[in-house]
Amino acid sequence: MSFYDVVHRRRDTRGEFTGAPIPSDVLRRVLTAAHAAPSVGLSQPWDFIVVRDEHTRRAFRDHVNAERSVFAAELDPRQAELFAKIKVEGILESTVGVVVTYDPDRGSPAVLGRHAIADAGLYSVCLAIQNLWLAATAEGLGVGWVSFYREDVLRRLLDVPQPLRPVAWLCVGPVDRLPETPDLERHGWRNRMPLDDVLHEERYTRRSGR
Amino acid sequence: MSFYDVVHRRRDTRGEFTGAPIPSDVLRRVLTAAHAAPSVGLSQPWDFIVVRDEHTRRAFRDHVNAERSVFAAELDPRQAELFAKIKVEGILESTVGVVVTYDPDRGSPAVLGRHAIADAGLYSVCLAIQNLWLAATAEGLGVGWVSFYREDVLRRLLDVPQPLRPVAWLCVGPVDRLPETPDLERHGWRNRMPLDDVLHEERYTRRSGR
């Protein structure tokens, strides 16, 4: 796949995982790509925890189900009906979970480029996540980012010490296909916007109907 | 370039910009790649402001210079000496600035996947930034993320309304080369860590010497 094919074929996968093994060299290339991301002050403030254990994954899945209900209870009836059809995680069906954390102490105290923007370290972690996601796509794997969880619950489950923060649980593994259309669009939850709606020249321009 | 070539050749560029024009179809492909990033609840909570105006760029550069001095004043003498040699921005030398902002109201109130993690929207914006960075690399352009600024200053400069947050000023443009080694490593500020130092199996494992 060419670079742009990878970018545009990448999808958030939930229902497509086959559970087949990931060859260790493939997983290594994907994690190496993540680790090659840029980071503020070259702090590389991420850690990657590869979770295979069934017990851990079931415990996390149960927590995610509970948080799914919390969100569902906030919705109006039309949204609730749509949401009921939407799968939000593939924790058990995927081959591994990759939990990505942020360590604010890495490279501290003088992290070059972070004195004015405390969140810059967190931003770096997300750049690594996108590298991982694209590399997995290039390898024919699916990735699904699960965000229906409380950070403290995930921190305790994986012995992640303070002040580290879990940033993502990524479901990773072979898929039977990568869907053409995002699940949320297919289910009528929300449609993608045209680029021109978010593009501005020189200054931010307020637009109606957004 | 293959996908992995793009990932591993990407660099944070500051001193390498030539100021040559970016063909409009190239910039469009790069921004289209950014806009193809995944986002929590398909909220696509980003905006891209392309800044070419010299007056705006000078004003921002002056602010960044002032913030550079703020950071320099925090350093011990050894670090201060190293830091004095490090270029932190290519605002005027690059062809355009692309300012990326986060709009927490996009798709609100019920953003699917954000109820438990308020920062999830901000994370999405960073995924778009990494797509932009890699696409620019694939096009032979350099990108330099400037983070020596106060959000309120940049917000006022570009008329970005509350509650939007500027997330990055990206210097983008043709470069005479992409360095092999990150600037901060070349200057002895900090070295990249091996992947195995940040890789864990099943649970987070505390390690010494980090």
TrEMBL record, chains A, B:
Residue ranges occupied by any Nitroreductase domain in the UniProt entry: 9-173
Record flagged with keyword Oxidoreductase: yes
InterPro entries: BluB, Nitroreductase, Nitroreductase-like, Nitroreductase/BluB
Keyword Protein transport: no
Keyword entries, A-Z: Flavoprotein, FMN, Oxidoreductase
EC id: 1.13.11.79
Top-level taxon of origin: Bacteria
Catalytic class of the enzyme: oxidoreductase
GO molecular function: 5,6-dimethylbenzimidazole synthase activity
Coiled-coil positions: none
Protein's UniProt name: 5,6-dimethylbenzimidazole synthase
Organism expressing this protein natively: Saccharothrix hoggarensis
Species lineage: Bacteria, Bacillati, Actinomycetota, Actinomycetes, Pseudonocardiales
UniProt gene name: bluB
